[in-house]
Specification:
about 0% strand; transmembrane helix; about 290 residues; Carbohydrate ABC transporter permease; MetI-like_sf; MetI-like
Length: about 290
Amino acid sequence: MKGSGSKLADFIIYAVVGLIAIICIYPFIYVLSASISSSDAVLKGDVLLFPKDITIEAYKLVLEEPGIWVAYGNTIFYTVVGTLFSMFVTICGAYPLSKKRLKGRSFFAFFIAFTMWFNAGIIPTYLNLKDLGLLDTRTAIIVGFAISTFLVFIMRSFFQSVPDSLEESAKVDGANDLQILWKIFLPLSKPALITVGLFYAVSRWNGYFWSMIVLNDESKIPLQVLLKKLVVDMSVKEQMANSLDTTSQYSAETVIYATIIVSIIPIILVYPYLQKYFVKGTMIGGIKE
């Protein structure tokens, strides 16, 4: 039986965790409610938790944007193809680094880790992409920002946790390193692969800064860049239209909230299915050599 002190500690922990959960969830609920509320209700501050004067005019405006579906397709392409390529190069880097027999392993690990704290910077990176002829190309987005050093070490830590006996048994049966990686390490690394893949996918989906700088062709820009342009344009249009139309069911604020919801729906739908692997995979980084 728990003592009164233990019960009080549990109550405090649950209360604090519950408060943090409410703080995290409330902004999303507010944005969702504001996006389907009338502009008057939002501007007057009547929307606090639940929507007022429900309308979907803001969503109609966002979805009627001519390039919205092209941008959605581009974002899906960058996310799927980019994540697969990122996973490929991450595995190719992490697997050799997990082997003690790799000559110069400490040297390579140090210089890879060095890039976590020091990098070339924005201007040198841009000039590098320019000299390689990758400006305004999809390749620049997929290949140019394909790898995260932190995630390489996450994968390496998991590969190191696989018992050496499995690899030794496979070698006795005549398997080479590629077969061992494909048939033993990757199947056993499902939690790590999903965790790392989720990190990459979310980063790709939310990719905005470099896409805005590198891409000029409207047919190649991802959703995040288009939504930024839409929000900015709507702010200007609304200011111009205020004196002419006072009955509009949407405003710049409601459009902004609607674009936020539109941009995060896919990640919200996917994340619950991957959460159990994500929780397990985030513990991998605690494994030490």
